[in-house]
Amino acid sequence: MEFIDLKAQYRALQGEIDENIRNVLENADFILGRQVDEFERKLAEYLGVKYAVGCSSGTDALQLIYMANDIGEGDAVFCPDMTFVASVEPGFMLGAEPVFCDIDERTYNISPESLERQIQAVLKQGKLKPKAVVAVDFIGNPADYDELGKVAEKYGLLLIEDAAQGLGASYKGKKCGTFGNIAATSFFPSKPLGCYGDGGAVFTNSEEMMQLLKSLRVHGKGSSKYDNVRIGMNARLDTIQAAVMLPKLKVLDEEIDRRQKIAAKYNEALQDKFVVPFVMEKAVSAYAQYALLAETREQRDEIRNILLQEGIPTIVYYPNPMHGMKVFGNCFKGDETFENTINYADRTFSIPFSAYLSEEDQERIIDVLCNI
Ligand SMILES: Cc1ncc(COP(=O)(O)O)c(C=O)c1O
Fold first, then answer.
1. Strand 97-101 versus strand 174-175 pairing type
2. How far is the CA of 90 from the centre of ligand 1 (A)?
3. CA 302, 294, 266: angle at the middle one, nearest 5?
4. 6-100+107-250 CATH fold
5. Does the pTM exceed 0.85?
6. What is the pairing mode between strands 129-136 and 97-101?
7. Which residues contact 2 (CB under 8 A, 6 or more apart)?
8. Whose CA is nearest to atom 10 of ligand 1?
9. What is the pLDDT of residue 240?
10. How wide is the angle at C-alpha 169 spanned by C-alphas 166 and 174, nearest 5°?
11. Which of 84, 108, 236 to mutate to test the pocket of ligand 1 (most atoms within 8 A of CB)?
12. How far, in Å, from the CA of 85 to the mean position of ligand 1?
């Protein structure tokens, strides 16, 4: 059984994907070709944002955002303690310090209360300047942008949405990728909208920001790529990847609907035995992963072993809270205990999930889990 069935998705869309790839090969238009423009335009339209700037990965999308907003030495960037390292790694590389915040015990997203506590702690310490907050739509579940927006505004912070796991999700009818001042996403193959390699994008409503991002993704170009006006990166989105994603974008909402149905079925069958995902009212999760909580770490590990013996793969997203990582050992922690993150990391495990998970596999997973 596949954990995420990318092969089934390819089989469903093969005709159009193959033809699109062949077109790129025949035109030898590999770098920032026509399909990149088309994909950026269609993705921006889908999300309801003015500009989508394609780039080489979700990590680079975040780096472009950090660079475009002059985030660096002496700045504090607030971030959930439960995320993938790339949410803050590029900021750290540029000299900013990540300040981790505990997660909400139900949504597993950054807790607005913990965020405010950490901002206060940084101000009290007096060494770092609170500069930005990165809100992650963790495993596809929209963060609480109403509350986060209030805190960001109160302290004059840039609110960055890390929608790497959240494309296709929405909150109060607004799509993930459009919250905060600026947003990033990833097209890593297993993401809700994935390509066949690495890719990412930045979303903005500002024309000036879009121009700056387009300069930064091509070595800080000015009027041409041989007129360099700033230090930038080589962070372009490949034409082939854009061509692969055009057909995938067309069916994204349909896939998100199928994900809701499978999640509802899992929820109903498993809620008496495990903690099932919590999605805020008026929010739609992209269910980039379907995560359950067992009672304890030991029980979780035992269940994973049984599933493995039954040929059912599981993954833990993520086993280690950020605050305990060696790489962030010297970063400011305040008095935060990270109780919710530690509890989540100990108990979570994700089971096979995708829009293409067969009914037979769904039944088998439910059956094995219910009989443990
Ligand atoms: C929350 C989050 N942010 C950023 C990234 C980085 O994306 P990429 O792998 O495309 O660089 C990921 C990818 O896993 C992610 O999950």
1. unpaired
2. 11
3. 105
4. Aspartate Aminotransferase; domain 2 (3.40.640)
5. yes
6. unpaired
7. 8, 313, 352, 354
8. 58
9. 98
10. 115
11. 84
12. 8
Bridge-based pairing of strands 97-101 and 75-80 is parallel
For the chain, which residues make up each domain, given as ranges? Answer: 6-100+107-250, 253-370
179 φ, ψ (degrees, to nearest 5)? -90, 160
The answer for 172, left when phi > 0, alpha when psi is -120 to 50, beta otherwise, is: left
User: What is the Cα–Cα distance from 68 to 209, expressed in whole angstroms?
Assistant: 7
Among 216, 148, 205, 213, CA closest to 177: 205
Average confidence (pLDDT) per 10 residues, the chain, 372 residues: 97 98 97 97 98 98 98 98 97 98 98 98 98 98 98 98 98 98 98 98 98 98 94 98 98 98 98 98 98 98 98 97 97 97 98 97 98 93
**How far is it, in rounded angstroms, from Cα 193 to Cα 190?**
8
- Confirm if 290 and 312 have CB atoms less than 8 A apart: no
Q: With contact defined as beta carbons under 8 Å apart, do 128 and 155 qualify?
A: no
Looking at residue 225, its pLDDT comes to 85
If one residue of 56, 57, 59, 193 were mutated to test the ligand 1 pocket, choosing by the most ligand atoms within 8 A of its CB, it would be 59
Q: What's the length of the chain?
A: 372
Is-contact 355 2, C-beta < 8 A? Answer: no
Q: Token pair for residue 100? A: 């981790």
Among residues 156, 126, 122, which one has the least CA distance to residue 333?
122
- Whether 83 contacts 258, CB under 8 Å: no
- The region, left, alpha or beta by phi > 0 then psi within -120 to 50, assigned to residue 121 is alpha
Per CATH, the number for 253-370 is: 3.90.1150.10
How far apart (Å, rounded) are the C-alpha atoms in residues 100 and 114? Answer: 9
Output Rg (C-alpha) for the chain, integer angstroms. 21
Phi, psi angles (nearest 5°) of residue 136 = -105, 135
| 80 within 8 A of 138, measured Cβ to Cβ | yes
35, 20 contact by CB (below 8 A):
yes
